[in-house]
Amino acid sequence: MTVPVLVDCDTGIDDAVALLYLLASPEVDVVGITTVSGNAPARSCALNTLRVLALAGREDIPVAVGAERPFLAEPLPHSSAVHGGDGMGDAGLASADPSLLDERRALRLIDDLSREHEGRLRILALGALTNLALAVRADPALVPRIADVVVMGGAADAPGNRTPAAEANIAHDPEAAAVVLSAGWPVTLVPLDVTMPELLTEEHCARLAEAGEVGRFVATISDHYMDFYAPILGRRAAPQHDALAAAVLTGEVVPSVFPLLRVEVECGSGPARGATVCDTRGRYRGSPDQADGNCRVALALERPGAFADALVERLAAWR
Ligand code: BDR
Ligand code: CA
């Protein structure tokens, strides 16, 4: 039996790749997608998601618009430098038909799916955690209906990317992250420590461009993303943050250091706002699980740097 997955995301270049990866993965069944403000406004992210679903021939999956603002704080500017003004690399893609958006708002879709797939629904969170925090606050009984939550976000021992201390998804809504990471459901955190080295390169994109429509789409939207990352990495390449988290969810990517840790989110107004303070002090004795841990944190992978090859293989085989 395939596993039902709800994706909560801010599509977004790497979100789009993650969605295509999941749609190409027979292990899982994407049963709904909710969007949140982050890389672009939540509504634009939902329209971007529709473009991805049209490409995949999966317009049957409901897409619901979620929070346009953080849970409590003032919003940060959208990440247009990273993902382009339209969130998809400003590649001139045709816009989607807004009438295809689900009539339900994100919280309603999360609630409906959690009841339909009670105890089995897995959530993959690829953006700010606003929708999930609002859903938990609205109905704490949601928590036991969810099998687990896999979050692309945070930085354990690595630097942040939105600020020196904070990773973008957490930085967009630290108060929401604090709620979600300690809501009581099983949480897996896939932080920058493991996502930054998983690079789609120009060689990968050349292979994708030679493949079918899906491969060409990924190569096209990755162009802008590589421009952004070139000065950071010293070469044109694109870290696959969100697709890596998706692959941890499917089990294709296996973390080698994966302890249950206490993780606190810094919600103050100083320079560490949005930091995920992970208690990694156990590293000198093999990173054992902590009795008061609230998140299982991927600190290292069994095959570091190998994911992009597997990703390209899966996407290039598709139409
Ligand atoms: C995360 O932030 C967003 O820009 C990406 O889509 C990814 O989810 C990386 O920090
Ligand atoms: Ca994202």
Quote the distance from N terminus to C terminus. 25 Å
* Overall morphology: globular
List how many beta strands DSSP finds.
14
Please report the number of helical segments. Answer: 12
What is the strand content? 15-25%
Portion of residues within helices: 25-40%
- Radius of gyration over alpha carbons? 18 Å
The biggest beta sheet is recorded as: 8 strands, mixed
Class derived from helix and strand content: alpha/beta
**H/E element sequence:** EHEHEHHEHEHHEHEHHEHEEEEEEH
Order of neighbouring strands in the sheet with most strands = 3-2-1-4-5-6-13-10
Q: Which regions contain 5 or more consecutive residues with pLDDT less than 50?
A: none
Question: What is bound: which ligands?
Answer: beta-D-ribofuranose, calcium ion
- Average the pLDDT over all residues and give the rounded result: 97
Summary, kept brief:
By secondary structure, this protein is α/β, with parallel strands linked by helices. The chain is built from twelve helices and 14 strands. Helices cover 37% and strands 18% of the residues.
